Amino acid sequence: MSDSRFVSRDTLRAEFSAAMSAMYREEVPAYGTLIELVEDVNAATLDGDPGLADSLAATGSLDRISEERHGAIRLGTGRELAMMRRVFAVMGMVPVGYYDLSVAGVPVHSTAFRALSKTDLDRNPFRVFTSLLRRDLIADEALRAEVDAILAARDIFTEKARELVERAEAQGGLSPGDGTLFVREVLETFRWHDRAVVDAETYERLHRAHRLIADIVSFRGPHINHLTPRTLDIDAVQRLMPERGIVPKAVIEGPPARHCPILLRQTSFKALEEPVALQGPGEESWQTGSHTARFGEIEQRGIALTPKGSALYDSLLAETRARVTPAGDGSNAREYAEILQEVFCAFPDSWDEIRKGGLGYFIYSRTQAGDAAPPSPDEDLESLIAAGLVRADPIVYEDFLPVSAAGIFQSNLGDGPVGILEGGASRATFENELGTGVRDAFAYYGEIESASIERCLRQPALYE
Ligand code: OOG
Ligand code: NI
């Protein structure tokens, strides 16, 4: 249904991602340093590991690596979330997954907006981890009402951005000129504002309830709080960060270093303490304060796990954390890493075992030999692989991990919350406010896998 009058959604997403990266580089110079480090490490990793380059090329994802990043925002209201969904839809991004962070004492729940099809992801995989404040978890009722009033008074979108979203919906796309304008206008929503919309006393009260509440409520918009490039060797980047003047978080979140990377490993550098202007007692009077919210993060992506593989991952992570909980100050970082490594020995570490154990998703393709002698549809996939006619490459995990996300939030939030109620997941409320259901990530990986098997077995011979 592409219409040649319109700029493609993939192009808009790529342009938006690039514009956001340029803006964040200017706002947070350490992010630029991190990008350079990641580019150096990725180039060196590919040089030293031709097999990896080959596998990435076979799944069509080699070219996207250096373009790849995710960002994160935190929204205040369901209205903002619903509008954000429409904005992202113009760029071909849909909500995938529901993440309940309340289990970690963080008063938000989240989804990730991203492209859905493999082709679109390969064109540009930009994703945005998008959180919504759980106002129902604010313990103090008066504060809750105040939060509602402050949030009700703001509009985080420009008028032009709203107009262009409506136009895109009505026409089914945007002209190239409108597309350029759209990227510029939407970027405004993600911009940092150093002037708060609250006074110092209100900021303090919000902050005391939870630092995240102060971050979400005190400003004109949901400034992008980090942007994360994808690295092919997170241990190398973690090790090299201090050499470039960046102090990393104590432990890498997610699985340990492995021969076969699974899911997602992430680390970050601490949020900056930035000067902000808080409203003073008189009109147009300002008081200087400081706010800590924006940071940098890197990630290494591995294979997407099946429900069975994910369950094994969850249980091994829980087992690790029952033995040692990583301390925020890094004092037991080494012990944590050792136990993590030890416990994860129970997770098979060869592609063959992962595949045969039904733990991960793979994309199957014919080798040259397979193309020359195409298999018949009833042939057994494993025998074809053994005969060198078909190859299996891991499908990269495109989503997030709730325990890791909680760790990233917490490393930047410091002391425990005081004004937050305990609450369970609230997916139905989230989807209701979003205005649609969130997609199931497993179904997406499963479809890519089955389609690739279908192609392997049924595609006619390819003749030169
Ligand atoms: C989002 C933290 C989660 C990730 O990569 O898991 C996240 C936030 O701090 O707003 O970005
Ligand atoms: Ni992140």
UniProtKB/TrEMBL annotation:
Q: Which CDD domains match?
A: VOC_YdcJ_like
Q: Which SMART domains match?
A: DUF1338 (SM01150)
A Pfam family that the UniProt record links to this protein: HGLS
Return the broad EC class: oxidoreductase
Q: Which cofactor does it need?
A: Fe(2+)
Q: Which superkingdom is the protein from?
A: Bacteria
Q: Which InterPro entries match?
A: HGLS, YdcJ_bac-like
Question: GO MF annotations for this entry?
Answer: dioxygenase activity
What is the similarity comment for this entry?
Answer: Belongs to the 2-oxoadipate dioxygenase/decarboxylase family.
Q: What is this protein called?
A: 2-oxoadipate dioxygenase/decarboxylase
